[in-house]
Model the fold of this input.
Amino acid sequence: MPPYNAVTKTLALPDGRQISIETGKLAKFADGAVVVRLGDAMLLATVVSQPSQREGVDFLPLSVDYQEKFGSAGKIPGSFQRRESRLSDYEILICRLVDRILRPMFPKDYHYEVQVMISLISADKEVQPDALAALAASAAISISDIPFAGPISEVRVARIDGQFQINPKTADIARADIDLIVGATADSVAMVEGEMNEVSEQEMVDAIQFAHEAIKQQVQLQLDLAAEVEKSKVKREYPKYDENEELKQRIHEAIYQGAYDVAKSGNTSKAGRKEGFSAVKKQFLDQLLLEQPELDMKMFSRYYSSAEKKAIRDMMIKERTRLDGRQLTEIRPIWSEVNYLPGAHGSALFTRGETQSLTTVTLGTKLDEQIVDQAMVKGYNKFLLHYNFPAFSTGEVKPNRGPGRREIGHGNLAMRSLRKVLPAEDENPYTIRIVSDILESNGSSSMATVCAGSMALMDSGIPVRAAVSGIAMGLVQDKETGEYAVLSDILGDEDHLGDMDFKVTGTEKGIVACQMDIKIQGLSNEILTNALLQAREGRLHILREMAKTISAPAAELKPHTPRSTKVLVDKEYIGAIIGPGGKVVQQIQKDTNATITIEEKDEKGHVYIYASNADDMAAAVSRIRGIAATPEPGETYTGTVRSIQAYGAFVEFMPGKDGLLHISEVSYDRLPTLEGVLTVGQEVQVQLVEVDKKTGKFRLSMKSLLPKPEGYVEPAERPDRGPRPERGDRPDRGPRPDRGPRPDRGPRPERPERSDYTAGDSQNQ
Done:
């Protein structure tokens, strides 16, 4: 018998495929370990939590890592080291999907380090593993003794051919007009992220509800699994916060009204509000320290933060107003500018309140495409969006260590939003890179990136189908009374103090992308629908403000933007354009200052030409068309003599095409030699007389372009004597008789010199 006791639970999807969760077979030293399988896709998820807490830690040190093993798909990594290295952006995005829903499920006072690791150990090209990662992580935690308010799960819901599907096959996702990852507990939705083709708010709500029903089944599957695992039945004990109810009540009574008044004052400056709250805190703390010199400052800070938070939230619900004095649906003032950076191919400066993005667009060639080398995907990406969030944007000092997971996640949301309005790939020859640098941040900088990116694309001259804007929605809800306030265009403080961060992007027609995180249990459909409808009004308002600066793509590219055109050629000419070792195409690029890329698809050669001015473009196009043109008998060409032989000259009459100019076709005169008549490198006018049907060789003539001399008579054509009979058709004459040895006739006499013989006259020989 095997040295393990495995437990397995299965669940059937609506299309008949089965999801299974197995534990007890792998990674038994981990606090929890499971293998989730769908088709041939298998994910191993493990969780370990340290038994001791690091000193001074007052938060949950949770890390979630997702990695796809190249061996799972039968591949070797393409990196120099030929091994998995740092996580790719795609893997980091899956880490964020899992982290965002797991983190709120741990007790607020649980500060022990937790590490969740998820690995794709077997791949299936028809299964997307991102929809299984959170299920695997939650199952691993649920069968452990780590305190956890789950289980949770995530599923992909896609609308394909008008029907919602759960975790559809990879090949079908390309046809989806809604593609969402939804995360939830059995009771409520907690996370949504995805993209859509300009759909309505109600269609999005329907998709989320459909996904939640499937998640409920996956949650029950985990509960059934945990019920059979002994370790999960008793959760580990850990020290709770020391509580002082008397101090807590005193702090609340002392500072609540002061904090309420500061919040209600409507100070539009973040710094001004901070100063007001600090004054309330300092006044009370100075007095309290006189009474209690041994005051536990950690306990005081915790109680003070709780009281301040409640005062601000109560103010918003009761007064229906905001920290900066705005109404619940009011958007902060917006101003924008395009063509701000003259050296960029496109640029926009977008400012909303105290949030500002400076965004550039760069248009590159096919050579600038990003190489994608992942376990399940290999190819190229021609649309890039990079989001940068320097410390000075929030008035802080931090080392610049490159983009973190937050920057990658925010950039991905903006990228998905803008990708929906780009021209079709066959209509856009450029590799597009958008870079958003956040210069000020107090509110959603990712939504500012969407707005600035949309405007910069239009400024660059890219023919986008529509403008895109984005808005971040917040929520404050009183658990006891059920009253709530939905906030449009939230501030940074409102994000921190609120119960929801719901980012929605779209065009005038509908939603194209979203990202939602819920911090509370039990978000109702009523609140979700109201938030989406309120977001629509805000999104349309922002679009109108953007249109005041730029309302349509620029009619012309910037003067310094590389122009592009595409030439279609028959695929047999691709080799001639490239030339041996790339010599031909490299020479064309050198001569014309153009950049040329070639690819074969749809049985055609697609030649992309990029040049910075019209003359260079015309020269490159002419050279390409010359190589790919089909020679026509009877046409006249300007050719170059490449070599001279005794019987004629070889002339390159089209790029990459040589023909024979026979010595008899140079002139009406009989020429003994071409010496002194033609030289290598000489340009000559020739006519294509014939293309040999069998060999494809070209026969050229100069003579046919010259006027005939007076009295010239064409030489008579040799009569056609018909095909020569085969030897087998001749009469059999029998064997040749043996005539014996030939007699010796002695030495041959000297031949007398002929007076009419001229050496070298090949036509007289």
Observations:
- The first strand starts at residue 7 and ends at 12.
- DSSP finds 14 helices and 29 strands in the chain.
- The first helix runs from residue 89 to 102.
- Confidence is low (pLDDT under 50) at residues 754-765.
